[in-house]
Design goal:
single chain; 199 residues; four-stranded antiparallel β-sheet; two-stranded antiparallel sheet; 3 helices; 22% helix
Length: 199
């Protein structure tokens, strides 16, 4: 199995900043563009399985905005499905990303409106169903995964009026790109390349 960087060892560091993003093979990296509607940006990701048994994976990720750095992240799975439980599972990163993004927008809205807020906390429940024959479902069925909903709870300590905080929270949720990715249907595609040949 080839590696983007040539390194295959895992030292237990889950996330670290790296000097540059490895170049993807499948697409060109273009800078973000400002339009009348807003900032059109992309987040570029390269993920690969690491050598050896189990389900340890490495990912390189960077937004196409100059002031954002590139990072190397690791992910694994629990032992019940063949992982080693050395790093958060992919769905853990998905859930954390939504909560982190929402916190960014809540803080941004509060600051832009000059609101007096002493603390903001997000608690979240993401629901899924996994159907893997012989692993999470009876043998003979079809392999499928489903998202069964997202419940978000925003806990705010403030002296501001309830109406002001409710309006701020609604604005932040609509502005949160991570939340909107799962709240609304988005276009998606999957392209497979085998031995350098796109099929």
């Amino acid at each position: 199995m080839t590696s983007v960087t040539g390194t295959t060892t895992f030292d237990g560091t889950l996330v670290k900043r790296i000097p540059t993003m490895p170049a993807p093979v499948s697409f060109e990296i273009e800078p973000a563009k400002k339009t009348r509607e807003g900032l059109d940006l992309e987040l570029h990701t390269i993920a690969e399985l690491m050598q050896g048994p189990g389900l340890l994976k490495r990912c390189y990720v960077k937004p196409n905005i100059p002031s954002f750095g590139a990072f190397e992240m690791h992910s694994d799975e629990g032992t019940v499905i063949g992982g080693s439980d050395l790093a958060p599972a992919p769905l853990s990163y998905l859930a954390a990303g939504i909560a982190f993004c929402l916190l960014t927008h809540l803080k941004g809205c509060a600051d832009s409106q000059g609101l007096n807020i002493s603390s903001i906390r997000v608690e979240q429940k993401m629901k899924f169903q996994s159907r893997i024959p012989g692993m999470t479902a009876d043998m003979g069925g079809q392999m499928e995964g489903h998202s069964n909903g997202l419940e978000t709870f925003v806990l705010i300590e403030t002296q501001e009026d309830d109406e002001v905080i409710t309006r701020m929270s609604d604005i932040a949720e609509r502005a949160c790109m991570a939340a909107q990715t799962v709240v609304n249907a988005v276009p998606a595609s999957l392209t497979v390349t085998i031995n350098g040949r796109q099929i």
